[in-house]
C-alpha cells in the first residue's frame, strides 16, 4: 500500500475526531518514518511498510487522545517543542502572552524574569531566544515538567539563560531582583467539564480551585509583595471582571487585558507601583 492509499484509508477513522483527518494521518506517518513534509510530498506514491504501526496510532487518536502526545511534539511560536504525557500541551493562545512580555522586555537591559508554572518550558525558552541578555528562573511543582522544560531549553540552546527550580510559586526561589513575573497558571474551576481530548492532560495544570482564579490571585498578591514591577498572566475568558475588582487591593500604576485569537479575554498585564508592600 502506498503512502497516499494509507492516508485515504486511515483518515476515515479520524473524521469524527478532527477537522483535518488527512493532515493528521500524514503527521503520524512522518512521525513513524522520522521524515519531513517535503519528503512526504516527494514520496507520496511510494510503498509504506509500517501500516501496522500507523493503525495502532490512528486507533488511539480516534479515542480523542491528543496528537501531540502521540508524536511527542508541538509547534509553538514557529518552533518545535518536545511534549510528554503528564505535562500540559502548549496552546497557540500562549504565544500572545509571550508577545506581551517581549514588548516590555525588549527595551530593558539585562532583564531578570521569573516564570511560575513553566510546564514544557515554552514561555521561558521563547523569551530566552527573543530577548538578548535575559536571565530567567522557571519554576514548577511537577518533576516531569521540569525535566521536559530542561530538555527543551537544551534543544533550543538557551539552557545557559534559564534556571529551573522545583517550587510552589516563589517558595524555593532565592530573594533577588526580578523585573517581571510571567505565568500561564491553572485557571479552570474544579467543577468544569473538560472536552474529552483535554481529559488526557494533567489536572493540576488545568484546575485552579473551586472558582478557578484562586491561583491567579495568589500569584498577584505574592508578586506585589515581592516588589516585582510587571506581572503578566494568562487567564480564563470569564475572569476579567472579578480580577479587575481584585486589582483594587493593590497599588497599581496601570493594567490592561488582551484577547485571544477568538476575541475572548485571555490575559492581563499589570505594572505595580514600586514601594514596600504590606497587603
Automatic annotation (TrEMBL):
<feature type="domain" description="Release factor glutamine methyltransferase N-terminal">
    <location>
        <begin position="7"/>
        <end position="71"/>
    </location>
</feature>
<keyword id="KW-0949">S-adenosyl-L-methionine</keyword>
<keyword id="KW-0489">Methyltransferase</keyword>
<dbReference type="InterPro" id="IPR050320">
    <property type="entry name" value="N5-glutamine_MTase"/>
</dbReference>
<keyword id="KW-0808">Transferase</keyword>
<dbReference type="GO" id="GO:0032259">
    <property type="term" value="P:methylation"/>
</dbReference>
<protein>
    <recommendedName>
        <fullName>peptide chain release factor N(5)-glutamine methyltransferase</fullName>
        <ecNumber>2.1.1.297</ecNumber>
    </recommendedName>
</protein>
<dbReference type="InterPro" id="IPR007848">
    <property type="entry name" value="Small_mtfrase_dom"/>
</dbReference>
<dbReference type="Pfam" id="PF17827">
    <property type="entry name" value="PrmC_N"/>
</dbReference>
<dbReference type="GO" id="GO:0102559">
    <property type="term" value="F:peptide chain release factor N(5)-glutamine methyltransferase activity"/>
</dbReference>
<dbReference type="InterPro" id="IPR029063">
    <property type="entry name" value="SAM-dependent_MTases_sf"/>
</dbReference>
<dbReference type="InterPro" id="IPR004556">
    <property type="entry name" value="HemK-like"/>
</dbReference>
<feature type="domain" description="Methyltransferase small">
    <location>
        <begin position="103"/>
        <end position="190"/>
    </location>
</feature>
<dbReference type="InterPro" id="IPR019874">
    <property type="entry name" value="RF_methyltr_PrmC"/>
</dbReference>
<dbReference type="InterPro" id="IPR040758">
    <property type="entry name" value="PrmC_N"/>
</dbReference>
<dbReference type="Pfam" id="PF05175">
    <property type="entry name" value="MTS"/>
</dbReference>
Amino acid at each position: 500500500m502506498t503512502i497516499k492509499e494509507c492516508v485515504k484509508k486511515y483518515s476515515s477513522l479520524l473524521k469524527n475526531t478532527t477537522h483535518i483527518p488527512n493532515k493528521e494521518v500524514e503527521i503520524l506517518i512522518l512521525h513513524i518514518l522520522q521524515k519531513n513534509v517535503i519528503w512526504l510530498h516527494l514520496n507520496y506514491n511510494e510503498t509504506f511498510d509500517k501500516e501496522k504501526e500507523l493503525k495502532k496510532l490512528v486507533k488511539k487518536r480516534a479515542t480523542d487522545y491528543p496528537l501531540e502526545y502521540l508524536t511527542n511534539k508541538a509547534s509553538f511560536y514557529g518552533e518545535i517543542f518536545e511534549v510528554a504525557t503528564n505535562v500540559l500541551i502548549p496552546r497557540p493562545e500562549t504565544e500572545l502572552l509571550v508577545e506581551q512580555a517581549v514588548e516590555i522586555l525588549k527595551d530593558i537591559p539585562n532583564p531578570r524574569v521569573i516564570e511560575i508554572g513553566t510546564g514544557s518550558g515554552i514561555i521561558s525558552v521563547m523569551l530566552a531566544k527573543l530577548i538578548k541578555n535575559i536571565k530567567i528562573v522557571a519554576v514548577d511543582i511537577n518533576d516531569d515538567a521540569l525535566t521536559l522544560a530542561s530538555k527543551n531549553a537544551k534543544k533550543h540552546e538557551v539552557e545557559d539563560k534559564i534556571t529551573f527550580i522545583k517550587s510552589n510559586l516563589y517558595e524555593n526561589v532565592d530573594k533577588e531582583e526580578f523585573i517581571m513575573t510571567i505565568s500561564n497558571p491553572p485557571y479552570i474551576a474544579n467543577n468544569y467539564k473538560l472536552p474529552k481530548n483535554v481529559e488526557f492532560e494533567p489536572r493540576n495544570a488545568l484546575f485552579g480551585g473551586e472558582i478557578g482564579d484562586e491561583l491567579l490571585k495568589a500569584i498577584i498578591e505574592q508578586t506585589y509583595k515581592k516588589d516585582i514591577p510587571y506581572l503578566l498572566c494568562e487567564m480564563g475568558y470569564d475572569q476579567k471582571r472579578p480580577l479587575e475588582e481584585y486589582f483594587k487591593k493593590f497599588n497599581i500604576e496601570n493594567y490592561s487585558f488582551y484577547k485571544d485569537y477568538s476575541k475572548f479575554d485571555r490575559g492581563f498585564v499589570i505594572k505595580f507601583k514600586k514601594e514596600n508592600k504590606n497587603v
